[in-house]
Amino acid sequence: MHEQGLYHIQTVSERTGISLYNLRAWEKRYGFPVPKRSPGGHRLYDENDIQALLWIKARMERDHLKISEAIRLYRAQKEKLSASPGPEPVEPRTLDAYALLENTPLTEEARALYAALKTFHFRRSHQLLDEGLERYDLETIFFQWLVPILKQMEKDVDEESLTPAEKKVITEVLLGRLYRLNALYDRDLEFPPDAIAFAPSGESEHIGLFAITILLRKNGFSILYLGPDTPDEAVRSGLDRLMPRSILSTAHKKESLEKLIALYERQPKMTHRLPWFVGGRCAHLLYKVNDLKSILPFERNRAAFDRLVKQMMRLKERKT
Predict the structure, then answer these.
(1) In whole angstroms, what is the distance from residue 78 CA to residue 93 CA?
(2) Could you tell me which of 241, 237, 235, 317 has the C-alpha nearest to residue 276?
(3) I need a surface site. Which of 18, 73, 237, 259 has the fewest CB within 10 A?
């Protein structure tokens, strides 16, 4: 990190997952972004540049846009936001990369499932899930049904069209179904396991992390799942005894992210060499800390999940 909240190109590449080559090429070909320059001529990016790059990357992955199309769309939306009328002049706002994922529309099948869940027609809900699992693979059910439903629930709670109690009931129904699916792929733990997965103490939201655990087990990985609200001591004990190849965590609150970073920094040096992969709504706030990595929330984005699988496969091959 440079002075005054500016970042060198290497740091930007690490935070966004965009290669150094592409960062330079996009600037040259499309004038995007336009970083400041140090007295020595080095590129210096600010936080707005990073968020803009994440927005572009998310759009390309979700909608399979070309870089030129994604940049054109970004500029159009930013111009629209900047031109919004208001009582006072409004500074140009950074577009949130993760809003794209949150605005994924419900498919007709997912809409039918959500309607059944909201009206507490749970028998119908399970019938729809059974039919879906017969027609689609588990990844499709998760990323095209479950993820949009979870996001729609959050939106409905914010708009007060769904109460927190109703959200909890629906979440528990979905979790119950995930536990049944997990039984199909759960197996004896390998030593060392490919990963330990947990939500830190105080973090109760874990449905996304649990679903990712099931998908990883389906892909042949050995995962020890510790669940939500995991005490620090339980995490340390698991790391010390099992020495997993990697660690999966989730952070839906800033406090959870702070706890993960504190937990990471308190680990012995040997554990510091373990890759930590963090998902959840606050993952994008994570600055890279040694081997502590943020992956564009892997439980909400199929492309990010695929990258996670590739990285874990490399770890598995490297240490077998």
Answers:
(1) 7
(2) 235
(3) 237
